[in-house]
From TrEMBL:
Region (Disordered): 134-153
PROSITE patterns: CAP_GLY_1, CAP_GLY_2
PANTHER family assigned: DYNACTIN 1-RELATED MICROTUBULE-BINDING, TUBULIN-FOLDING COFACTOR B
Family assignment from sequence similarity: Belongs to the TBCB family.
Provenance organism: Rotaria magnacalcarata
Descriptive protein name: CAP-Gly domain-containing protein
Cellular compartments annotated: Cytoplasm
Keywords: Chaperone, Cytoplasm
One cellular component term from this protein's GO annotations in UniProt: nucleus
Length: 239
């Protein structure tokens, strides 16, 4: 049975996997066998593997470069780092690359003929989008939501000063520059030119211009997030 003095503990790193490992090896193990064990730990191929020894601070000291030598014949001690280098990464990663692997896909028609599928279960039990009552309730709530947004929009006019309150974001001040439909989302939207560079665009989205402003000062929000009023412009010099 190996004693504590017969074993050396290493921190093992590699260029194949991002995770690290801590393992103990016998001083009497040959480097060739060490490579075989490191292959199981790191995925690096033993025949194309190089083992670099670093100190605890990460400074490289030497290589374990003779498969016939035993580990203990090198000046190694516990807590050192074994940096395992796979010199043929393409070969090591070939089984992880699924780019050229043909994918088996069912057409909607083929899937519909299958038995005991998730879709069949949902249909039979009228769950989720297959529940007519739930769909009607969802449609009703969406309609009410849009009615509320339209009512809010009716109180907003271009050139109005405003505050914008979006959940999980700080309150921002700006000027209303646009009100109406947009091509990227359904419903009515309000285009804002903020007083500070807290926006996402310059009044354009996906190449379509809705209003003019400096980049990062423009944004589009739902009407319910906008409160119009006598809000003085933010003075950046006072912040």
């Amino acid at each position: 049975m190996a004693t504590a003095d017969d074993m050396i503990e290493f921190n093992i790193k590699s260029n194949v996997v991002s995770s690290e490992a801590i393992r103990r090896f016998k001083r009497s193990i040959h480097i060739g066998e060490l490579k075989n064990q490191l292959e199981l730990i790191t995925g690096a191929q033993s025949q194309s593997m190089k083992i670099h020894v670093h100190d605890e601070r990460g400074t490289k000291l030497f290589d374990l470069d003779d498969d016939a030598r035993v580990l203990g014949s090198y000046n190694v001690h516990s807590k050192m780092i074994l940096q395992v280098e796979e010199t043929n990464l393409k070969q090591a990663n070939m089984f992880e690359d699924t780019t050229d692997v043909p994918k088996y896909e069912l057409t909607p028609e083929e899937y519909a003929t299958r038995k005991n599928t998730a879709k069949q279960f949902l249909l039979e039990h009228k769950i989720g989008k297959y529940n007519p009552a739930a769909q009607e309730e969802h449609a009703r709530k969406e309609k009410e939501k849009e009615q509320h947004e339209q009512e809010s929009a009716n109180k907003i006019n271009v050139n109005d000063r405003c505050e914008v309150m979006v959940p999980s974001q700080p309150t921002k001040r700006g000027t209303v520059m646009y009100k109406g439909d947009v091509h990227f989302k359904p419903g009515v939207w309000i285009g804002i030119r903020y007083d500070e560079p807290l926006g996402k665009n310059n009044g354009s989205v996906e190449g379509k211009k809705y209003f003019e402003c400096v980049d990062k000062y423009g944004a589009f929000v739902r009407p319910s997030a906008v409160t119009v009023g006598d809000f003085p412009e933010v003075d950046l010099e006072e912040l």
